Amino acid sequence: MSNAATFDTRTDTAIPVESPLAYSYRRSGAPQAGGSSRLQLRERAMLGHLILRGGAIVLDEAVRDVLGLNLPGRPQTLVQDASGERSIQWLSPDEWLVIVPGGEEFPLETKLREHLGSAHFAISDVSGGQTLLEISGEAARELLMKTVIYDVHPSNFPVGKGVTTVFAKATTIIRRPSEDRWELVVRRSFADYCYRWLLDAGAEFGVNVQQ
Amino acid sequence: MFYIYCPYCGEHREEEEFHPKGQAHIERPKEPEACSDEEWGNYLFFRDNPRGVHHEMWVHAVGCRKFFNMTRHTVSYEILETYKMGEQPSITADSQAKPREAAAVSQQEGVRA
Ligand SMILES: [Zn+2]
């Protein structure tokens, strides 16, 4: 067990917790286009986000034992468990993003630290710093084409790919976990900006916001 | 607008994701205290400004955030190659000069014939 100081960022006390979009819902609302909608937008708030850094071989062994997932070794790849609830994404040759259901991140971090022992690695809990937005529907790719500089055509962006790129001038992780779903991981401080961009860009497709 | 191949991401990306970081392969003197003022000044402040092949450092700032090297032609802006940190360029001013000389000679021969 490494001697890094760790703590669970989720408290048991009755402090109200708000998603990064709480302010945006109050200020910009959550438009409902109803049956004519070609685009669904949903925030998957309060998930557990961990950044793993270190050598691929030691980290792979640890996540396989603790999480039951292989560490994606190839650039721009994303692996998920059968439920799709837990995922690991390649970010850089020595950096991966793990996303798990909210509340699982601290036990996972603790188990990984136990497993990795004195290996050379770093784990950072970034759950509070970013949030995941999910877009789906037939116009989802059209929306991305208006917004990102990266080529999102299926020939270049198959299911199971994830990249860090520029989304409306903000740094954003874009992932494609399944055929009809895209995920954006945005910084908390950019969440309102990205949300309002999505509402504006999605207006022509009749965006439906699920809260 | 450049379309740059990141050797770590293994694909081409828009220039907007990158930042240039100056001349590549600058080595810090092993013993700074043993340097003359001129050697230290050259290391700190003086950079090449060639007309032609140049080796530069770039960072994939919005992406993998890794530094890498690029061989670029300062006249045509053509990117000749990109390669990882710690690697040596396969294209240099010397390697580029030779085929041009050879081409020039063959042209002259063509004139003569
Ligand atoms: Zn890269």
What's a concise summary of this model?
The complex is a heterodimer of chains A (211) and B (113). By secondary structure, chain A is α+β, with helices and mostly antiparallel strands.
Describe the structure.
The complex is a heterodimer of chains A (211) and B (113). Chain A has 211 residues and is an alpha+beta fold. Chain A is built from five helices and eleven strands. Chain A has helices at 22-28, 56-66, 105-116, 140-147, 188-202; strands at residues 39-44, 48-54, 78-80, 87-92, 95-100, 121-125, 130-136, 161-167, 170-178, 181-187, 207-210. In chain A, a hairpin with a 6-residue loop joins β3 (78-80) and β4 (87-92). The relative contact order of chain A is 0.23. Chain B has 113 residues and is an alpha+beta fold. Chain B has a single domain, classed as 2-Layer Sandwich (Folate-binding fold), CATH 3.30.2270.10. The longest helix of chain B is centred in the C-terminal third of the chain and has 20 residues, at 93-112. At the A-B interface, β8 of A face β2 of B. Bound molecules: zinc ion. Residues 6, 8-9, 60, 63-64, 66 of chain B line the site of zinc ion. Chain A: This is Sarcosine oxidase subunit gamma family protein. Chain A: It comes from Vreelandella maris. Chain A: GO terms for molecular function: sarcosine oxidase activity.
Q: How many DSSP H or I helices of chain A?
A: 5
Fraction in beta strands of chain A: 25-35%
| pLDDT < 50 stretches of chain B | 105-113
Total DSSP helices of chain B: 2
The N- to C-terminal Cα distance of chain B equals 43 Å
Output the CATH homologous superfamily of chain B. Answer: Folate-binding superfamily
**CATH architecture annotation of chain B:** 2-Layer Sandwich
- H/E topology pattern of chain B: EEEHEEEH
Can you summarize the main beta sheet of chain B?
4 strands, antiparallel
Largest interface: A-B, 13 and 13 residues
Oligomer: heterodimer
What's the CATH topology label of chain B? Folate-binding fold
Number of domains of chain B: 1
**End-to-end separation of chain A:** 40 Å
Order of helices and strands of chain A: HEEHEEEHEEHEEEHE
Number of strands of chain A: 11
Helix/sheet category of chain B? alpha+beta
